[in-house]
Every structure is written in structure tokens, then in C-alpha cells.
Specification:
The complex is a heterodimer of chains A (364) and B (283).
Chain A (H helix, E strand, L loop, with lengths): L11 E10 L2 E11 L4 E5 L6 H9 L6 E6 L2 E2 L10 E4 L11 H10 L7 H14 L15 H13 L5 E5 L7 H18 L2 E6 L2 H7 L2 E6 L2 E6 L1 H6 L4 H6 L4 E11 L2 E6 L2 E7 L8 E6 L5 E3 L5 E10 L3 E8 L3 E8 L13 E5 L5 E5 L2
Parallel strand pairs in A: 3-8, 3-9, 6-7, 7-8, 13-20
Antiparallel strand pairs in A: 1-2, 1-4, 4-5, 9-10, 11-12, 11-14, 12-13, 14-20, 15-19, 16-17, 16-19, 17-18
Chain B lengths: L2 H31 L2 E2 L5 E2 L5 H4 L5 H32 L2 H12 L6 H12 L4 H7 L11 H26 L2 H9 L4 H12 L1 H16 L3 H6 L7 H11 L3 H30 L9
Antiparallel strand pairs in B: 1-2
Helix pairs in contact in B: 1-13, 3-7, 3-10, 3-12, 7-10, 8-9, 10-13, 12-13
The chains are: A alpha+beta (364), B mainly alpha (283).
């Protein structure tokens, strides 16, 4: 999916961008090209530098080293009010002394020469309509619910048609149901406007559901960038496999290759895994096995395990398994599959997975 | 005990205090203001408007008060706002407490002593001789309206700084970023965001300073040298020196009336600017 963006000139670029606060390094050596029209997310735990990266695009922070480019122009040292980007703030940062319409109009009213009143009013109506808040113009900010305030913040940020819309954890303050609805709406708004969206989040589900590409960050660095499917199916490190989705990690030793697959010895059995090209026989390897790849059977071939916990989660059930050979494993079984609901803690079953379900990662 | 009874009990001390210390004295002042002066001074009961007809005799005091009190308030505001902004937003949080203490340190010394210090600074051997050294003539500073203004601003500045500081301290810094992000350069952000959102502090500070200035008598006495006198000085004179209590009461009653009118007008104007109306941004 990302490939369709690759031909054009990037709308924004980070080149070897490092940001230091005194002795603390917030980001180091960031390299990233953001393509026009894409929805890109910075994903990572708090303190990983994702917000700093966003704030350097907005102009609130200046890079200590390296260059930030917007639309081919080096914008190092250019203040926020001269940059063609707008931001949706985490707590929305709506002006409490202005009503909804004046909040939305704020960006347009900063243009010089000032646009005509009728023109501004029409643009405000259009923007409010886009976020489904028609008729809310005269309301005060404090009369709006959290979800509505977020829409106002969105309308305020898109009214100037920025080249890039920056979103700083925009849904952190919303409840789960509202967040889900808003994710869908945000995605369709992005398609409608054709504006590049750059989102910062620590919520992997949010990043996975909306992004064309995700940039995983850790300790101030970009760890891996790719489409959601890419990152989920082909994580290059344990960090990414752990952050995008969940996984069982199995320590193993390379036994050799069998066709496309890597044979790895773990706890007395051999697991056939994807990846791991170039690993020498006998070297250590970490295998990542997604919980949904594991099937549970009453008997037969496979890994003998004991159920320790059963957690019912509605559409699927999570089993915590204890194996003599491999330690603790987690399996997720969809509702309606034969094993679900039947297994109580203490049950002895067999865990199975197909060859190539596991992925070989560099041992850490 | 019924809740209403309990509430009344809790409010009783405050009510008694207000009644004895505010309402009764005000009634006494009003009653006195219609009386006449006795032969040896003091008060003789009467019902005459003579004292009010005579107010013109003290017109200069009213004029000075009504010019210098608002002007002093405005000067305090102009100096205090940037200072409060610096303290609340720009200053390093590690130094903030120390800087705030520095603002109130002058209060540790009596205003009387501090005003005497200004006599030395503004008197012939102080600033004027320094200016003379620079070859720009020797201006007279002490005992002028300027000296009184200096004393007023010096004495009342902290009362203006703190309410504005509190208002600006509450101001979400993200709002300034949002304004900048939406294309507003710093000065316009000041006019459109910081200033309107600090108006509650501005209103409180101005009220505090203005009301106290209307009753001021010490600073004009010391730095005005009897040439620049306020209504407060007239009252001291009428009650303590010439012992014309009825006339003093009329002057005091008029001052209260003037204050009520100006404060009401001012508060109404501030409410129009900040209170829930849309036309707040001073664009």
C-alpha cells in the first residue's frame, strides 16, 4: 500500500535529526521521508521521542543537529506561525474565551490581508459540517463534550488546509467506544481532504487501524518503519514484535535450514520458523510466535501443555499455558472453535502450530 | 439543629462585625454630614445641606484624587503586566518562588519609612543633583505630582502584580502554542490570547489598587509636601485639625459615592470585555 506514495517528492523529511535538552537526548539520528497524502503514525512508549519528533515538525522545538524539511524547504529555525502545518493538541487547547465558531475561524483570521468576514463564516460552516458539528458555532467551549471538543480542535486545525496535519495523541482523553468511532471518522476525513496526517500515539490499535505506515520508535530512535501488515508479520526485532500485537518469545538454537525455513531447537523439540537467513548453525535465536497461531487439541502431535488461566474476552478466549519444555505461552482462541469454552485451568492439552508460523529474530 | 439555623450561627460573627464596623459608622457619617459645626468644633445636630453646598472648597483634593488614583492604577497596570507575565511564563521555575518573594519584600518595611527614603532620592541632593551633574539642569522632583506618582506606583505595584500573576499562571501554555501554530506571531498572540485571558486578574488588581488609592493620604502627605493633596488629606485636616466634623463627613460621604459609581462602571466594562461574550479578542 505504501508503494503508491514512493514516486513523488516527500512532503516532509527528517534528515539525521537529533534533539538534545542539555545532556538528555530526546531523539537521535532520525531519518524519515513522509509522502504526500499518507497517514503516518509515530508509535512508541512514553519517552521514546515521538512527541519531540512531532513538535519539531510543528516548529515548537528546533533540531539540535540535522535538518527538518517541509515540502522540500529546510525549515530549521522557522517559527510555528510561518509553517504550513497545523496541529490537533492532546488536550485540544481550545481558546476558552472564544466560542466554537471563533475558535475554528482563528487560523483564517491570522492571515494577512485578513479575509472577508463572509468568506471566513462560510469556511467555518464548511469545516464544522465536515466534523459533523453544524450549528454549534455560537456554543461556548465548556458547553461541549470531550468528543465534541475534539471535533472543534480538528475543524480549527484543518481550516487553513495545512500541508500536514499533526495529531498529538488526539484520542487519549476519549473513552474506548468514542475512540473507535473517531478513528474511523478521522481516516475518512483524511481521505476526503487528501491532507497528509502525522499521528503520535502509544496505542498500537490506534496506529494499526488508521495508518498507511507506522514508524516505531524506541529510546529516541526509529526502530522500524513499515505498513501495519509489514510490522505485524515481519517485525525485525523483539521490540517491534512485542509492541505491535503480542507475541510468545521462545529462546532457541539454530539447527540448520529446511528449504525456506529455519529449523531451531528449543526445549528438546524442533520448531520450523520463517526468516533467520544468514544465521550460523549453533547460534542463538529468538522465535516469535503470535498467540493466534496456536491451536489447542485434546491430544495428538504437538507440545504438551497445562492450562493455567482461562480469560474470556468475548469474541475470543485467552489461554495461559505452562509447558515443561518452553515455559509459559499465551494462546488466543476465537469463539466458536471447538476447544473454546471447554478447557478449565488444570486441563492437559496439546498446543499445535503450522510450520513457518514462528518468526526468527535476532537473539538479544 | 436545622441547617438554616446553623448557617445563621456561622454567619453571625461576620454579620455583627460588618454591622458595627461598616454599616453603623457609615450611618453616623451620613447623619453628621447634615449637621453643623459647633463653636469649638465637633458636631451639632441639624438638618442642613450647607456642607454639601460647600464641597467646592475642597475641589482641588477631589481633582487630585480623581486624576492621580486612576492614573496611578493605570501606571501600575502597565508596569505590573509584563512583570507578572515574566514571572508566570518566562521565568525559570526554579527561580520563580525567589522572584515572587522579591516582589513582596518591600512590604516588610513600613510604607512610612519607604516613603521617607523616596524623599532622599527625589530631594535636592538626590536624583536632581545627579541630573544636574549630567548637565541637564536641576529639575524639582520632590513635592510634585510626579513624586506622588512615583510613591504610589512603588507602594502599590505588588498588589497589581499578584492577581495578574495568578491569572497568567493558570493560563494553559498550550494555548499560546496553539495560537502560534494557527499562524499568529507573538505580539498578536499576546493581544488575542494572553491579554483577554488575564482580564480577571487585571480587574482584581485594578480594583485593589484603585480603591486603596482613593483613600490614600500618607504618600501625598510625605512626597507631595502639602502641595499635592488627596481627599484623604482633606479628611485628616477636617477631622483632626480644623475639627469641622460635619463638613468632613460630607466630603467622606461624597468620596464613597464617587467610588461606588466608578467601581460599578469599571466592573461593568470589564464584564463586557471578558464575561462570556464573544467580542473579547481585542483584534
Amino acid at each position: 500500500m505504501a508503494k503508491r506514495f514512493m514516486q513523488s517528492q516527500p512532503i516532509a523529511e527528517l534528515r539525521e535529526v537529533t534533539k538534545r535538552y542539555g545532556l538528555v537526548t530526546a531523539t537521535s539520528g532520525l531519518n524519515l521521508a513522509i509522502q504526500p497524502g499518507e497517514f503516518l503514525s509515530f508509535l512508541g512508549p512514553s519517552g521514546c521521542g515521538k512527541t519531540t519528533a512531532l513538535r519539531m515538525l510543528a516548529g515548537f522545538e528546533q533540531a539540535t543537529e540535522g535538518a527538518v524539511l517541509i515540502d522540500g524547504q529546510n525549515v530549521n529555525g522557522v517559527p510555528p506561525y510561518l509553517r504550513p502545518v497545523n496541529m490537533v493538541f492532546q488536550q485540544y487547547a481550545l481558546f476558552p474565551h472564544l466560542d466554537v465558531a471563533r475558535n475554528v475561524a482563528y487560523g483564517l483570521n491570522q492571515r494577512r490581508p485578513k479575509p472577508a468576514k463572509a468568506e471566513v463564516a462560510a469556511a467555518v460552516d464548511r469545516a464544522l459540517e465536515m466534523v459533523r458539528l453544524s450549528g454549534f458555532g455560537p456554543r461556548r467551549i465548556w458547553e461541549m463534550s470531550g468528543g465534541q471538543q475534539q471535533r472543534v480542535a480538528l475543524a480549527r486545525a484543518i481550516i487553513n488546509r495545512p500541508k500536514i496535519l499533526l495529531l498529538d495523541e488526539p484520542m487519549a482523553a476519549l473513552d474506548k467506544k468514542l475512540r473507535h468511532d473517531m478513528q474511523i471518522e478521522l481516516k475518512s476525513l483524511q481521505r476526503e481532504l487528501g491532507i497528509t496526517f502525522v499521528l503520535v500515539t502509544h496505542d498500537q490499535e490506534e496506529a494499526l487501524s488508521m495508518s498507511d505506515r507506522i514508524c516505531i520508535m524506541g529510546q529516541g530512535r526509529i526502530v522500524q518503519t513499515g505498513t501495519p501488515e509489514d510490522l505485524y508479520d515481519r517485525p525485525q526485532s523483539r521490540y517491534v514484535a512485542d509492541f505491535v500485537g503480542r507475541s510468545n518469545f521462545i529462546k532457541a538454537e539454530v539447527a540448520g535450514r529446511e528449504g525456506d525455513l529455519l529449523a531451531a531447537k528449543a526445549g528438546g523439540s524442533v520448531i520450523k520458523a520463517r526468516g533467520g537467513e544468514g544465521l550460523a548453525q549453533g547460534s542463538a535465536v529468538t522465535l516469535s510466535l503470535r498467540p493466534e497461531e496456536i491451536r489447542l487439541a485434546p491430544a495428538g502431535e504437538g507440545l504438551p501443555v497445562t492450562v493455567t488461566h482461562r480469560i474470556f474476552l468475548g469474541e475470543h478466549t485467552e489461554y495461559h499455558l505452562q509447558s515443561k519444555a518452553l515455559g509459559t505461552l499465551v494462546a488466543v482462541v476465537p469463539r466458536g472453535s471447538e476447544a473454546a469454552g471447554a478447557l478449565a485451568p488444570g486441563a492437559e492439552v496439546v498446543a499445535q502450530w503450522r510450520d513457518g508460523a514462528a518468526l526468527a529474530l535476532q537473539a538479544e | 439543629m436545622r441547617p438554616s439555623l446553623r448557617t445563621s450561627l456561622f454567619l453571625a460573627p461576620a454579620t455583627a462585625w460588618l454591622l458595627c464596623m461598616l454599616v453603623l459608622p457609615l450611618v453616623v457619617v451620613l447623619v453628621f454630614s447634615f449637621g453643623t459645626r459647633g463653636a469649638a468644633g465637633g458636631y451639632v445636630p441639624a438638618l442642613s445641606l450647607e456642607n454639601y453646598a460647600n464641597l467646592g472648597a475642597r475641589w482641588a483634593a477631589f481633582q487630585n484624587t480623581l486624576v492621580l488614583a486612576p492614573l496611578g492604577t493605570l501606571t501600575c497596570l502597565i508596569i505590573a503586566w509584563p512583570l507578572a507575565y515574566f514571572l508566570a511564563i518566562k521565568a525559570d521555575p526554579r527561580w520563580r518562588t525567589l522572584l515572587l518573594i522579591l516582589v513582596i519584600v518591600p512590604f516588610w518595611t513600613s510604607i512610612l519609612i519607604r516613603s521617607y527614603a523616596w524623599i532622599q532620592i527625589l530631594g535636592g541632593n538626590g536624583l536632581p543633583s545627579l541630573i544636574a551633574e549630567l548637565g541637564m539642569g536641576k529639575p524639582r522632583l520632590i513635592n510634585t505630582p510626579f513624586a506622588v506618582m512615583v510613591g504610589i506606583v512603588y507602594g502599590y505595584l505588588p498588589l497589581m502584580v499578584f492577581p495578574i500573576y495568578v491569572a497568567l499562571e493558570k493560563l494553559d501554555k498550550k494555548l499560546l502554542e496553539a495560537s502560534s501554530d494557527l499562524g499568529s506571531p507573538p505580539f498578536r498572540t499576546f493581544l488575542q490570547v494572553s491579554l483577554p485571558l488575564s482580564l480577571s486578574g487585571v480587574a482584581t488588581g485594578s480594583m485593589l489598587v484603585f480603591i486603596l488609592l482613593m483613600g490614600e493620604f500618607l504618600i501625598p502627605q510625605i512626597l507631595g509636601g502639602g502641595k499635592v493633596f488627596f481627599v484623604g488629606n482633606a479628611l485628616v485636616d477636617l477631622f483632626l485639625q480644623s475639627r469641622n466634623w460635619p463638613f468632613g463627613a460630607a466630603v467622606a460621604a461624597t468620596l464613597v459615592l464617587v467610588m461606588l459609581v466608578t467601581v460599578t462602571l469599571y466592573l461593568r466594562a470589564m464584564k463586557r470585555l471578558s464575561g462570556g461574550r464573544d467580542d473579547v479578542a481585542l483584534m
